[in-house]
Automatic annotation (TrEMBL):
Subcellular location: Cell membrane
Membrane topology field: Multi-pass membrane protein
All residue ranges annotated as the NADH:quinone oxidoreductase/Mrp antiporter transmembrane domain in the record: 116-375
A Pfam family assignment: Proton_antipo_M
Protein keywords: Cell membrane, Membrane, Oxidoreductase, Plasmid, Transmembrane, Transmembrane helix
MF terms in GO: oxidoreductase activity
Membrane spanning residue stretches: 6-24, 31-51, 71-91, 98-117, 123-140, 152-171, 183-205, 217-237, 249-269, 281-301, 307-326, 347-368, 388-409, 430-448, 477-497, 589-607
Record's GO cellular component terms: plasma membrane
Annotated PANTHER family: HYDROGENASE-4 COMPONENT F, NADH-UBIQUINONE_PLASTOQUINONE
UniProt superkingdom: Archaea
Name used for this protein in its record: Na(+)/H(+) antiporter subunit D
């Protein structure tokens, strides 16, 4: 009976109901209901039976709004747990009820996309996610409004591309239901990659990340840092699943490797703390995208595990940095320093997140990132064509270490703090330490993470790979040596580049997309409007001349004759007494439409 109830308890509706209650209940009660709704999602994700639920038809199409498998279960657990912590953090960070209601609606659409079992429901949730996340950004006002418009344009464009991909997929396959092959190969796969590439921050499509996430309320940044990008990465897996064979897979894999390097590089150059973290969303998504492109069982397990871990440590880092901004009012990391004495709990929260994202042994990022490294390494489980990808992932890992050494050094350890500030509030501390504890738990108890990860069961890995069979253990001597080498190289490099790095102020070259788009749009608009005005003036002028000629044929002949050489024409008086010619055309809208329809019909008939 309990399992039957769970199969009809649709998670997004529970969260949407909580979002409405947040607006009408007293503040504490409303936030408590929001947290409880996400606790319900956590329980449903853990206990709901596998399979299709709430299946039916919509406009004659088969739909599955609620689909549970090992993949959606893992993502639901991560998003549900993060949601609880995020609501607690928002309450303690003075987020308004309206912002929290928008955020919960955003979370509901994200979880709806994760549990969707067909492309039609996915499209609805995808667009709802874009709308609600834009509202979360806009709510803060100020600079967030313009950033929100740019954000909406990006995600609107990506949504249109995904919609086109789904439409062509339906034409080719005759169904919207997910299949083991994923999205249809060819044009649907290409359109899906481009559309989903906007949400997962492919290079060139990524500029909305550092442009948007540093601008809204600190609690809004926590929600935004996870739900759009991680849900979209999961949907990318649905399009390119383990069993699928797509020609684009290797290109997706190498795009992921380039994202890891690009994101880490520009994170290293940032002064703004939330901009630095935003670039690292792109970098960490790069590892997930690369593993999805590789598509082997180990790579898929690594992608889903790193996605799950990213939900935990990325939101934790935004929380810790948010507390620093909340207490100091400062966004520039170079204007801070020595805060570990003033804010030890925040420093601990940041440290747990930084150690996780940089894949230090003992933390969850080390386990999941290790899976992806091993899946790409041709000397281990990878194929020869991924050798260059393996090197890109190495460079991205070094850049990640450098970035978080820099961020932690300048905010918490560099010099003495010249201000006295309070530490995190109790709710902020509970949220940070809850996420940090989970990061540590899945790093030490890595078997639990392995049990959650689809395509891996138990604590002992054995896969077929290029050249034979092998064995994998995350804390083997070779893996620990690799982690030590990466950490050592990054630490030495930071000592060498610290001073020149602090003087660099290089912008992201991809940001040219904003002024370029503005000027291209402006010139295009002017070209269209001026062309229309010129054509309109020419047509109106021609009609007036023709009407005048009809009223004054003799004067028209005289005027034409005067233009001829050696012709003498006497002056004549206009027949209308010199009054300007006027034409009055009066008709109803219906008659106008009828006349235009008849005219177009005649034109088409003549053309055909």
């Amino acid at each position: 009976m309990e399992l039957d109830i769970l199969s009809v308890a649709y998670p997004p509706l529970i969260i949407l109901a909580a979002a409405l209650l947040v607006l009408v209940l007293p503040r504490l009660a409303g936030f408590a209901v929001g947290a409880l709704s996400l606790a319900a999602v956590l329980a449903i994700s853990l206990l709901a039976p596998e399979g299709q639920h709430l299946a039916g038809t919509f406009l004659g199409f088969e739909v599955v709004p609620y689909y549970v498998d090992d993949f959606s279960r893992m993502i639901g657990l991560g998003l549900g747990f993060l949601g609880i912590c995020s609501v607690i953090y928002a309450y303690s960070s003075d987020a308004s009820e309206t912002l929290t209601a928008f955020a919960l609606a955003y979370v509901a659409s994200s979880i709806g996309a994760a549990f969707a079992g067909d492309w039609l429901v996915l499209l609805f949730m995808w667009e709802l996610m874009a709308v609600t996340s834009t509202l979360v950004v806009w709510h803060y006002g100020g600079e967030a409004v313009r950033a929100g418009f740019r954000y909406a344009i990006f995600h609107g464009t990506g949504g249109v591309l995904v919609m086109m991909a789904v439409a062509v997929h339906y034409v080719q396959t005759g169904t919207f239901i997910y299949t083991e092959a994923g999205i249809a190969d060819g044009i649907p796969a290409l359109l899906a990659v481009l559309g989903m590439g906007v949400n997962v921050a492919f290079i060139g499509f990524h500029t909305w990340l550092p442009d948007t996430y540093p601008r809204p309320h600190i609690a809004a940044s926590v929600f935004l840092s996870v739900y759009t990008t991680k849900t979209s990465a999961f949907v990318l897996y649905r399009a390119f699943p383990l069993e699928g064979t797509h020609d684009l897979s290797i290109y997706v894999a190498y795009m992921g490797g380039l994202m890891a390097v690009y994101g880490a590089t520009f994170a290293l150059l940032q002064h703004d703390m939330r901009a630095l973290l935003s670039y690292h969303i792109q970098a960490q998504l790069g590892y997930i995208v690369a593993a999805i492109g590789i598509g082997t069982p180990l790579a898929t397990a690594g992608a889903m595990s790193h996605l799950f871990n990213n939900i935990l440590f990325k939101s934790l880092l935004f929380m810790a940095v948010g507390v620093v901004i909340y207490r100091t009012g400062e966004e520039d990391l170079y204007k801070l320093g020595g805060l570990w004495r003033e804010m030890p709990l925040t420093a601990v929260g940041f440290g747990l997140g930084a150690l996780s994202i940089t894949a230090i042994p003992g933390f969850n990022g080390y386990v999941s990132k290790g899976m992806i490294f091993d899946a790409a390494d041709p000397g281990y489980y990878g194929q020869p064509e991924y050798q260059a990808l393996y090197y890109l992932l190495w460079l991205g890992a070094i850049g990640t270490l450098l970035s978080f050494i820099k961020l932690g050094y300048y905010v918490f350890f560099h010099g003495e703090s010249d201000i006295e500030v309070a530490d995190a509030k109790p709710g902020q501390t509970v949220a940070m330490l809850g996420l940090g504890g989970a990061c540590l738990l899945f790093g030490v108890w890595w078997q639990g993470l392995a049990d959650l990860a689809p395509t891996i069961h138990g604590s002992d890995f054995a896969f077929s790979y290029y050249g034979g069979e092998s064995h994998l253990h995350p804390y083997s001597l070779s893996h620990l040596e690799t982690a030590g080498i990466l950490t050592g190289v990054a630490a030495v490099t930071f000592v060498v580049v610290r001073k020149p790095l602090s003087k660099l102020d290089l912008g992201d070259p991809a940001m040219v997309v904003y002024p370029a788009t503005y000027y291209v749009s402006r010139w295009t608009m002017l070209a269209v409007t001026e062309t229309y005005a010129a054509v309109d003036a020419a047509v109106v002028g021609a009609v007036k001349r023709c009407y005048w000629v009809g009223n004054n044929p003799v004067l028209a002949v005289d005027a034409a004759a005067r233009r001829l050489p050696m012709v003498d024409v006497e002056d004549r008086q206009p027949t209308d007494g010199g009054r300007p010619s006027t034409i009055h055309l009066r008709t109803s809208i219906g008659t106008t439409v009828l006349l235009l329809t008849l005219l177009l019909t005649i034109v088409l008939w003549l053309l055909l």
